[in-house]
Specification:
By secondary structure, the protein is an alpha/beta fold. It contains 10 helices and 15 strands. Strands 6-5-4-9-12-14-15 form a 7-stranded parallel β-sheet, sandwiched between helices. A 3-stranded antiparallel β-sheet has the order 1-3-2. Strands 10-11-13 form a 3-stranded antiparallel β-sheet, with helices on one face. Strand 10 (182-184) and strand 11 form a beta hairpin. Keywords: DNA-binding, Repressor, Transcription, Transcription regulation.
Length: 261
């Protein structure tokens, strides 16, 4: 049984598991983690220190607690903060949509803005995990909207669970507008909510072309739960003057820079 812990002994995977335990239990102790992973106290102290330095947890004596809850904004707060810059990015993204396509919409304030930017004359089939996006497109006469069912996450106002994933996996879409919580060249796409990971991965797997639209503050950022590497995105639409954006082009992404006010 020598290989029992082999998979999670890799530092990055072990840290992911620590974050999962923290989300489940509300706290973790160093002594429990030492026993759970069969590693040394120094290893766990180093893991917790690195996670704390990245802002992913709060280090306390003997273990760790979740980071303060006010670091994430709820959906309505983010929608209320929509500005002209985000609208400009959303309008550029909406121009990628063609008549007759099947389009997947991930949840999020930016993807909602993209849906609201679509012309009323367009003919589409839209599949989404966002009730808000479904409502926004309800008055488009030639848009057939399919809302993936399942439990509603009140923080993101998106559906999830096995029902939503099964529906998404049955779709072969032309285009996906994926929500971006954080996008880092080395880490990839990551999210604040663990229950979003499987849904986002299913969306990525079901689309021929993936478009990510994000403001500059999401680039280079990391959240606790990794969704996929950057190369799962085909097109990145972001602000014109973003330092370091060339690294995403080097990873093979098409990067569209939009001049915004």
């Amino acid at each position: 049984m020598h290989d029992t812990h082999q998979a999670i002994d890799l530092p990055s995977l072990r840290k992911q598991k620590i974050l999962l335990l923290l989300e489940r239990d509300g706290k973790v102790t160093a002594s429990h983690l030492v026993d759970h992973f069969a590693v040394s106290q120094d290893t766990i102290r180093r893991d917790l220190g690195e996670l704390a330095a990245a802002g992913l947890l709060q280090r306390v004596h003997g273990g760790a607690l979740p980071r303060p809850k006010d670091t994430g904004k709820d959906f309505f707060t983010r929608v209320g903060e929509t500005n002209e810059a985000k609208r400009s990015l959303a309008q550029r993204a909406a121009e990628r949509v063609e008549d007759g396509q099947i389009v997947l919409f991930d949840s999020g304030s930016t993807t909602l803005q993209i849906a609201q930017s679509l012309p009323h004359s367009i003919r589409l089939t839209v599949v989404t995990t966002s009730p808000m996006i479904a409502i926004a497109l309800a008055d488009h006469r030639d848009v057939k909207v399919i809302l993936a069912g399942g439990p509603l996450n009140p923080a993101t106002l998106s559906t999830g669970g096995h029902e939503a994933i099964r529906l998404i996996q049955s779709i072969k879409a032309d285009l996906l507008f994926t929500g971006v919580c954080a996008l880092h060249p080395q880490v990839g796409m990551s999210t604040l909510h663990f229950d979003e990971v499987a849904v986002k991965q299913a969306l990525l797997d079901s689309a021929s072309h993936v478009v990510a639209v994000t403001m500059a503050d999401k680039l280079g950022a990391v959240e606790p739960f990794v969704v996929a590497p950057c190369n799962r995105i085909h097109t990145l639409i972001t602000e014109w003057q973003v330092p370091g954006v060339d690294v995403y082009e080097q990873l093979g992404l098409e990067v569209l820079r939009v001049e915004v006010e």
